[in-house]
Amino acid sequence: xxxxxxxxxxxxxxxxxxxxxxxxxxxxxxxxxxxxxxxxxxxxxxxxxxxxxxxxxxxxxxxxxxxxxxxxxxxxxxxxxxxxxxxxxxxxxxxxxxxxxxxxxxxxxxxxxxxxxxxxxxxxxxxxxxxxxxxxxxxxxxxxxxxxxxxxxxxxxxxxxxxxxxxxxxxxxxxxxxxxxxxxxxxxxxxxxxxxxxxxxxxxxxxxxxxxxxxxxxxxxxxxxxxxxxxxxxxxxxxxxxxxxxxxxxxxxxxxxxxxxxxxxxxxxxxxxxxxxxxxxxxxxxxxxxxxxxxxxxxxxxxxxxxxxxxxxxxxxxxxxxxxxxxxxxxxxxxxxxxxxxxxxxxxxxxxxxxxxxxxxxxxxxxxxxxxxxxxxxxxxxxxxxxxxxxxxxxxxxxxxx
Length: 402
Fold this sequence. Notes:
The chain has 402 residues and is an alpha+beta fold. It folds into two domains: 2-205, no CATH class; 279-402, 2-Layer Sandwich (Heat Shock Protein 90), CATH 3.30.565.10. 69% of the residues lie in helices and 9% in strands. It is built from eleven helices and five strands; from the N terminus they run αααααααααβαββαββ. A five-stranded mixed β-sheet has the order 1-2-3-5-4. Residues 160-168 have low confidence and may be disordered.
């Protein structure tokens, strides 16, 4: 028992509901139909044909097996999203009809049909219809259930010697019974569908979360490493030129390269851990330093208001500065770059423009990632030529979040 208990405890809630529903079906069909069969035979006072009884028992066994298989295939279809072979459905109903006919024959007794005769016909069909509740929608289940009830009532009405009273009452009783059982099982299947769909939705949400985290990592890594590698490339060229000229400033440039590399390693680790926070004031200062080191004049306007912005807005605009400056270093031959921060009523606008674009450079992954980042915070990003300058403009509501 402890082993069974541990096995059950190791199942997830959807798996438990699936197992409970599945084995309830198997138990009801696999155990219920044989029990009803013995009840029908028990109502016979005198067996006039052993062949009829044997045929009824064999038919019950075959119908039970086919109904269980049909239920199993139907439940599996809900899991994998494929249908059940119509041949299996037809075979199950054919076996049920044959079993019902054998049941009528066996319940004839000493020449008069017993009260089990209508049930002998209705129950095999009802069990197969119960199995079909795993396959068919509710609107397709009710008419056959009513037909089975009427068919059972018709047996009582039209078979000579049947001692069961008004056929309408029996038809109603059988119809209500079969409908109630079938619809109850259909409801169980519907609940299972809902649970499985919720489980699939949860799985999709987890996959989306993983994909979103991968996108965040790729975007942040692109933004961080793009600027730092560009700075390293520029300073390496400068250091090489200074070395060729035997200038003492070369040592300082090499030291800067080492410092930037160490900072890059630290930032990459922070990106991996998800702890990195972009600070607008720090990014503006870093942009000025990197651009000037690369020989690009840098003017920052409105820098004093950067520290008063909400932290999420600073983070978002910091990424804009990071990407825009990276593009200046990598894709242009700019001599001058201007960064302007304007804070208006309810929004803030950051503009980064440079004079080094001779042709439309198009839009890469960095700007696309920025646009997506700002859109999530209710902001916008525009990038393109403005006369003889290339301008990146980001607008965010001051209550936005990155």
